Amino acid sequence: MTKSADSYLDVPKGKSIFAEGDKGQTMYIVESGCVELFLAERGKDAIAVVGPGEFFGEAAMFEDGPRFCSAIAREPCRLLKVERAVFADLLRQNADIALKMMNLLVHRQQQCELNLTVSLAELSRLRRKPAAPAAAPTVESKPKPEKPAPARAPVAAEPPAAPVAKTLEACVLRHAQGQSFALDPAISEFLIGRPDPVAGINPEINLTSVDPTRSLSRRHAKLIRQGRLFFVREEAATVNGTFVNNVRVATGQDVPIKPGDKLRFGAVEVEFAAA
User: Fold this and answer.
1) Which residues does 231 contact at the CB level (< 8 Å), separation at least 6?
2) Most CB atoms closer than 10 Å: which of 22, 223, 257, 273?
3) Are 61 and 84 in contact (CB under 8 A)?
């Protein structure tokens, strides 16, 4: 597949790419910007946000059916269009894209199973919740005349409490040479590796400057934020391993990390720390 100018779609912020129910035989790979996916039944809350290096619209392309959701550009974005007729050629020409698609599909399936498990557990809890007991009947009694309350001295009003600022803890990866790699609090997944313009790989955490031996894979690992918790996950086809406190991480497994932990990606060792 040749990436000609016709293969790209530049979409301004807020513009719809396709609507739920539309027929489509095209999937899209995000080169820059991000896209929000919506389901009519879920209202105004996005069911997913797709960023650089990720894809969407594959279901309609594979099944030759209608779009199951709507896609709207959350910010100006550039998309690579992949038609059904050239999809097989794209995978043959670029194995990295095939691995990326497999990783994302596996992650999406795991997330769906996790969401389903949580929903079923909540439904079971609600079904087991006992009904509130009926209130006992009350007998009205003739009210007794109240004695006048003694006069009270006026109480000075307390000054309003100072507002508490809501803060989101920021974290960094610190290298022994003094370099720090900040983790943007607005992002939930950080690809760790080295860039590859040909394959369209642009990791959020680029450790090339501290990796003189080129021990990093292009898509080496990911740091994942879930609320205030962080996890590290080694990507498929990583060659030189990922370690947490000198313990090897199994490929595809989410391993929890905390400030002070030592992480090693190939030959690059960094400390995970609060900023």
Assistant:
1) 223, 224, 254, 255, 256, 257
2) 223
3) yes
CATH 2.60.200.20 boundaries in the chain: 171-274
Helix, strand, coil abundance in the chain, percent, nearest 5:
20, 30, 45
Helices (H), 72-213: 87-93, 95-128
At a CB cut-off of 8 Å and minimum separation 6, what does 212 contact? none
Tell me which of 93 and 57 has the higher pLDDT.
57
Beta-carbon contacts of 40 under 8 Å, excluding residues fewer than 6 positions away, are: 20, 70
What fold is seen in the domain 5-93?
Jelly Rolls (2.60.120)
192's tokens: 């760790």
- pLDDT tens string 161-207: 444 333 346 899 999 988 999 998 888 999 999 887 766 788 999 99
Tell me the Cα Rg of the chain.
27
The Cα 257–Cα 179 span in angstroms is 20
Cβ 25 vs Cβ 57: under 8 Å: no
User: Candidates 2.30.33.40, 3.30.160.20, 1.10.10.10, 2.60.200.20; correct CATH number of 171-274?
Assistant: 2.60.200.20
